[in-house]
Amino acid sequence: MTIKNLLLALHDQLPLKRFIKNFFITGNAWGMFSKYSHIKKDGKLKQSYPTKIKAVNAANSMGIKYGGNYSAYKCPHCDGFHIGKNKI
Ligand SMILES: [Zn+2]
To answer: Secondary structure of 13-34 in the HEC alphabet?
Structure first.
């Protein structure tokens, strides 16, 4: 985890209202500090997207295809973006 990617990941949670919601109401954003924000449970690397917009488009497609609430996030562990499925 580099400082640059950590700051980008925190910045990705803005604006402040969203930041507060994601950290202190749903708690979803704390997951970014887990290694599983970067790798899958089976140890393989998660699909990485070079830009936020590409990750958002993929997340939207996954939501349509599989149902559920998928979201794109900046990974603090690498230079890319990943997709996660939120419980809430
Ligand atoms: Zn990553």
So the answer is: CCCHHHHHHHHHHCCHHHHHHC
